[in-house]
Amino acid sequence: MQRRVKTHHMVLGVMCLMYFIAYIDRVNMSVAAPMIKEEMGLSNLQLGLIFSAFAYPYAAMQIMGGWLADRFGPHKVLTVLSLIWGAATLFTGFVGSLAALLVLRLALGLGEGGAFPTATRAFTYWIPLKQRGFAQGITHSFSRLGGAVTPPLVFLIIAMAGWRESFIVLGAVSLAWTALYWFTFRDTPQQHPRVTESELAEINEGRAEKPRQEKGPTPWKRLIGGMWKVTLVDFCYGWTLWVFLTWLPSYLKDARGFNLKEMAIFTALPLLAGVVGDTLGGVVSDRIYERTGNLRFARVSVLVFGLVGALIFMVPMISVDSAMTAVLLLSASFFCLELTNAVLWSLPLDIAGDYAGTASGMMNTGFGVAGMISPVAFGYLIQTTGSYSLPFMISAGLLGFGAFMALFINPLNTVKREVASLPVGARLSGVGSA
């Protein structure tokens, strides 16, 4: 007899697919840019405006998207957001002007900006407490996998049909995912007809609270107090991640002398290392919590280890002579960096519970602001110094600062605990930080 797939595993799989598709839609513009630039006669400055247009609504939508998910439920909100970014991707294949490109990139940032906080809110009642790190790790590993496969995938479609067709095809895939999500997801397991009593008991193991029905005011002050250190650490993490996502190919070409074929191969290597790091970081954090019962140690230890490890491998990469050694060090650095990603996205669930959408939006605002500043600052420093050394040293310094700030994060200081009275045993164990 075939074993039945559990519904919360199915929900997790649908979310993994969303992260994968969203990152392809985010990165595809950089792959198609040379063809778009040539056809439309764009300057480098105009191309830069198109690249940066994504980041501003993306950052602005973090808190708003999470708040909307908390208020109206992730089922409705993520459906609307995915419709926006799917349509923006598809219609990019029909543009004929710079203005249209800018508007559609802004729409893409608007849709994707609220998507990840909304997805985190969706996990609040679907993912068992002891599997949160794994869930955040595996979903974000799919996003890194999406970034790694985008260049060959988009180049293949362009070679077969053209750059416009690449956006049309990818936009259609995004809209198909929207339909899949609408029919398979519900805001809570209790609302899903496929969830059995035994699966519901598994999902709710260790929880002190049930899904709230009332729509009370959002505790902004408590959320800010609980999340500001996480947001700062996420900024430090995001600064370096944006460097990898935007400047890695240029670094391999300019500083290490790789040709186009070598760049295609060795740009993917660090990103693939990040796929492993994303999943492993969440699994390790969950295992530490399961064995020790100490949620703070489980989260903070992985954060500090990952950020310090990324720093340790990045510093010698700057001065090493061998190009291949530099690639391996970059891969090791990015692997360690991505160990922290699942933990960062688990912390809003730990700290905020019912308000995890808003809290994760607060956290990922740090990443969004880093996306607005890091690529530009990195490029300015390269232009003014004629070297990649100083920009990478600044990135390493921020990694060290992030590791230091991570020491002060305490996921047991939850918003729930400030507004509800819990038994002493639950207070000590961290149970109830739903």
UniProtKB/TrEMBL annotation:
Keywords: Cell membrane, Membrane, Transmembrane, Transmembrane helix. Pfam families: MFS_1. It is found in: Cell membrane. Residues 11-414 form the Major facilitator superfamily (MFS) profile domain. GO terms for molecular function: transmembrane transporter activity. InterPro entries: MFS, MFS_dom, MFS_Na/Anion_cotransporter, MFS_trans_sf, Sugar_P_transporter. PANTHER family: FI19708P1-RELATED, SOLUTE CARRIER FAMILY 17. This is MFS transporter. It comes from Diaphorobacter ruginosibacter.
